[in-house]
Amino acid sequence: MWCHNRKCTDVLCMLLLIAVWFATTILGFIVCGVIENENLEAGNPWRLVNGVDYDGRVCGIDSGVKNEENIYYLPSGAGICIESCPTATDYKQFHCMPGEEPEDDLDAYKKIAAGKCMYHVATTDVFNYCIYDAVLEAAQDVGAATLEQAIAAANNGTSDAVAAGDIPESYFEPDEDNWFDDFTADLYKAIYVIFGFGIGVALGVGFLYLILLRVPGVLFLMTWGIIFLVQLLWLVGGALCVQIGKAWEDDNKHSDMESKGLLYFGYVLIAIGVLFFLFILCMRKRIKLAVGIVKEASKAISAMKIIVLFPVIQSLGVLCFLIPWVIYVVYLASSGEIVTIEMPNGAQVKQFQYTDNMRYAALFLLFSWFWTSQFVVALGQLVVAMAVSMWYFTKEKGSIGNLTVFKAIRVSMWYHSGTCAFGSLIIAIIKTIRAVISYLQKKAAQSGNKLAQAVLCCIQCCMWCLEKCMKFLNKNAYIQTAIYGYSFCKAARKAFFLIARNILRVVAVALVGNYILFIGKLVITVVTTFLAFLVLDSMEDELHGLYGPIIFTFLLAYFVALMFVEVFGMAIYTILQCFVADEEMFAPAERFATGDLSTTINKTNSDAKAAGLNHEGKGNATKVAPKEDGVV
Q1: Which terminal residue of the chain, N or C, has fewer Cβ atoms less than 10 Å from its own Cβ?
Q2: Where do the TM regions start and end (predicted)?
Q3: pTM over 0.85
Q4: Low pLDDT (below 50) residues in the chain
């Protein structure tokens, strides 16, 4: 069997990740109040939802206002907790701060002027907030009017938030008030078209794109066609600039600086075009190899069609962690103490104040999210690499099918979950550091310290670059683990040196692969949306408009395209490493390469040696690589 000689790798990291999950659960139970802890107070999400009165009490939660869930705002901007929102305006009824009840009407209006009372104004209960009906009417009148405009209109005692001349005529057209109802009705009527095309047809278009890439000459024309077009743009653009620059020298409309500037710019473009031509000339064989690798990757994905759905399983896994994690975060965010902050203009605002223990808990929750989400991403990359490498290192490729994907999942999770945990831990640490730096950047911006802002910005840029480099190295390390069964450190080291000694090949594959993936994403999204439009257009009599269904179909198709090209891209890099392993480890008669790669691999041996590639001995390779079923 393919996995007989494999061993569990980086078990300690997997145990550490499990410990983090356990600690996250315990922390969540503490902030939710299931477990009592003197260092962390339990939170209450309603403290984030319900209003806070002038005294810092949460309506419906804190003592003294437990039965008063709604908040009613006074002219001063201060809020008071009341049992129910007034539904009609009554100038004889008042809501006041405790102890400020008016003795008579005159006293009442004095206290209204002082911001301590307010007569009953018609309001609507919106999530326990008493919102003046005038505000809601103003917002409805102008449609897109901002909240500030609506509140200003309410304070002026009118619902005319914007002058009539400023309101577009479209707001007064019939049925405009029901646009949301029409929008949702269209989505409901076209639900089968949206999901059928956005998911089913998009996947079908994706596989048709893979089949198209395997048609002789198509991938060749796509690759060399864009290269020729870029070359033409450099030279033609440069020639036009030179011609126009010379023409400007003879007229009196342009200065000498303008004409020479354009002339020299044209020379630069021509020089870049020449350098680009020389670069392509040197890279031509490697580009040919990259084309072959992309074609083989399309064959691998076509043989294991179910593999493109693995990101859906990943999303479900992330969702299973995300739901309780969000609950823990909400409870933690609501556990702070509400304090009053005096603003420079004399106004007072309420905000949560957190202890150091709460901040440490928040940082730990953030770290656990980064590690878990990156672990799921890493596991997906390893599964794809495992399945594709099993396909490559099998002589009878017709025996490979969807069952191979399930085998790859089993092997990856049983033997190499620890390796995924190790690699994702590095990314999680970097992301956590970047989050801390972002917090410090915000504080530096508030303090106005320009030097600190500049230093932190540089550090943030460096950490961003480090994260990108580590993600690329990790991806290639997982491929090494899939092929050889290495632990993370050894796989990362092997991947680094493999990239170093095959850097031009990696560049060629990156250029060709990214271009093909971009075209694939474009084709899947545009073709699917266009086909959906043709069907929806035939339903025009049943729909109020096509925009809603078309937009949702486009978004679904784009998501499927992203999922598709992510798997395809990982397959491309896996085929590259499998090809290098095949080239370096096996004699010509024993190699697994097929199609274009089988003819390319023999021709590139002499080129590889001339480029300084370090081939490993065949004896060592046959020791670690079975000839028929795969590489261990």
Answers
A1: N
A2: 12-36, 190-212, 219-242, 262-282, 303-327, 360-393, 414-437, 503-534, 546-576
A3: no
A4: 1, 141-177, 345, 606, 608-632
